[in-house]
Amino acid sequence: MFDERSRADPHLMRTAELMAEASSLDDVVSILERTGRRIAGSDGIAVVLRENDVCAYVAEDAIEPLWKGSRFSLDACISGWAMQNRETAVIPDIGIDPRIPSDAYAYKAIRSLVMVPIGTPEPVAALGAYWCAMVWLDTATVARLEALACQATAALARLEGKRSTEPAAS
To answer: What is the value of pTM for the model shown?
Structure first.
């Protein structure tokens, strides 16, 4: 879990330790919620879980409320796009990117974002970082978010493996 990107950043080193101790999906979500904004240097962070064809915004840490508690069609939001395409979405200007549903962002102070899928081979979640200003999203920031998503992916795989090796209840 300590890849090169994690070694270079003390916050990522600490999150790797926390992810190694996570004992549930709720723990992983909580770690992402508590650490993502600092690692990204963003104005907001959101954790999104995939529930079949729906994206459920389950956690956030932001300067204003985002979408916690909301559910969107996988095909109608950028978190769904990132999960379906297994690809990080880097969007410096939400106003000109066709993947952004303008209605959902109309009353939000968001101008730039990065959305990173979590899980492999099929993403089961996404981590979004948001900025109130249009910012140039440098490769180091994107790499830190991707490293955090990799840590979450590893923790979820470990938890799934642990669950599949536990004896069935009688």
So the answer is: 0.90
Does residue 167 lie in a domain region?
Answer: no
* CA max distance for the chain: 56
Q: How many CB atoms lie within 10 A of CB 133?
A: 9
Cβ partners under 8 Å of residue 141, min gap 6: 40, 41, 114, 129
**Would residue 113 count as lying in a domain?**
yes
Q: Which two tokens stand for residue 155?
A: 């923790």
What total number of domains does the chain contain? 1
Determine the Cα–Cα distance for residues 19 and 78; give it in Å rounded to an integer.
25
Q: Please indicate, yes or no, if residue 168 is contained in any of the structural domains.
A: no
pLDDT in tens, 19-36: 999 999 999 999 999 999
